[in-house]
């Protein structure tokens, strides 16, 4: 029996689920504990290797995360808010590291995640890539260095299938800018302007969401003043960057004390 950490993947049939399965199988630092899908999905009971277009690997798709979690040291979760909250309770029961890339979560959802983190390691981030987390730090530092003569606008672009806006990454960047400015993001957030809005309010942080095609993820943080602009940008062209970051988080969390962490902790940047 392998002594390597065993990783469970939820939402196996999704774009990120399939990429995560591929990433775990290709790694020599972990094994695949199991994969799950929602009850009634046509993958249930089938070998996941065949489901993703390859050879059988001896791992069947399950609809019972509680059963899969018994043999898992970590659960990686890029699903939907309600599902992630339910998964957090199971991860806490199993004392498994819960890596959360799910976005669009409400304050109530996050309160429930915090409760689960009293019993297990939770690593949650709106974006798992190294580049975006460096961009987050840069955004905070630039916002701290510039006064409100510089308007802050965050523009994000994603594929047509993305269901939440602004993206989790855009909100991460907005929060970083707010921290840099020493303000509460909820108090200065300005989203989706339409119609006769009047002139821009000094100190606001604007958000704009573009959806189309197969764009993996693009984020610009614009600091605009009279006569000059500073633009910080991150472009993701392959979901593998998120899958690699999530796996890194799952491995980093082994042996850590229960609590909430983010990718800055994982990358040693906090």
Walk me through the structure.
Helix content is 36%, strand content 24%. The protein is an alpha/beta fold and 270 residues long. The chain has a 7-stranded parallel β-sheet, with helices on both faces. β2, α2 (48-51) and β3 (61-62) form a beta-alpha-beta unit. The model has no long low-confidence stretch (mean pLDDT 95).
Q: What is the topological layout?
A:
Layout lengths: L5 E5 L4 H12 L4 E6 L11 H4 L9 E2 L2 H5 L4 E4 L3 H14 L2 E4 L6 H10 L4 E4 L5 H16 L5 E8 L9 H14 L3 H4 E3 L13 E7 L5 E9 L2 E9 L3 H13 L6 E3 L1 H4 L4
Parallel strand pairs: 1-2, 1-4, 2-3, 4-5, 5-6, 6-12, 7-9, 8-9
Antiparallel strand pairs: 7-10, 10-11
Helix pairs in contact: 1-9, 4-5, 6-7
Any idea what the radius of gyration is? 20 Å
The CATH topology of the largest domain turns out to be: Rossmann fold
How many individual helices?
A: 10
What is the H/E order?
EHEHEHEHEHEHEHHEEEEHEH
Strand order of the largest sheet: 3-2-1-4-5-6-12
What sort of overall outline do the alpha carbons produce when their principal axes are compared?
A: elongated
Could you describe the largest sheet, including whether it forms a barrel?
Answer: 7 strands, parallel
Strand content: 15-25%
User: What is the residue-mean pLDDT, rounded to a whole number?
Assistant: 95
- The share of residues in helices is 25-40%
Low-pLDDT residue intervals, each spanning 5 or more residues: none
Write down how many β-strands occur, each being a DSSP E stretch of 2 or more residues.
12
Q: Distance between termini?
A: 36 Å
The CATH class of the largest domain turns out to be: Alpha Beta
Number of domains: 2
* Architecture (CATH level 2) name of the largest domain: 3-Layer(aba) Sandwich
Structural class: alpha/beta
């Amino acid at each position: 029996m392998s002594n390597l950490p065993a990783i469970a993947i939820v939402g196996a049939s999704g774009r990120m689920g399939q990429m995560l399965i591929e990433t775990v199988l290709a790694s020599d630092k972990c094994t695949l504990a199991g994969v799950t899908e929602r009850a009634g999905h046509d993958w249930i009971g089938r070998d996941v290797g065949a489901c993703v277009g390859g050879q059988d690997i001896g791992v069947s798709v399950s609809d019972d995360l509680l059963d899969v979690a018994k043999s898992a040291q970590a659960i990686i979760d890029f699903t939907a808010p309600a599902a992630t909250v339910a998964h957090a309770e199971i991860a806490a029961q199993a004392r498994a590291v819960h890596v959360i890339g799910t976005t669009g979560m409400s304050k109530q959802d996050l309160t429930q995640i915090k409760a689960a983190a009293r019993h297990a390691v939770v690593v949650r981030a709106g974006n798992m890539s190294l580049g975006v987390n460096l961009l987050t730090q840069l955004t905070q530092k630039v916002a701290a260095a510039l006064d409100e003569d510089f308007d802050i606008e965050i523009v994000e672009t994603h594929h047509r299938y993305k269901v939440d806006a602004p993206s989790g990454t855009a909100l991460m960047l907005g929060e970083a800018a707010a921290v840099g400015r020493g303000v509460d993001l909820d108090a200065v957030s300005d989203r989706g302007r339409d119609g006769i809005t009047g002139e821009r309010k000094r100190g606001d942080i604007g958000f704009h969401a573009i959806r189309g095609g197969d764009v993996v993820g693009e984020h610009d943080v614009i600091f605009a003043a009279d006569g000059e602009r500073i633009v910080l940008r991150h472009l993701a062209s392959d979901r593998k960057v998120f899958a690699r970051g999530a796996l890194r988080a799952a491995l980093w969390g082994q042996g850590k004390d229960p609590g909430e962490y983010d990718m800055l902790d994982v990358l040693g940047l906090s």
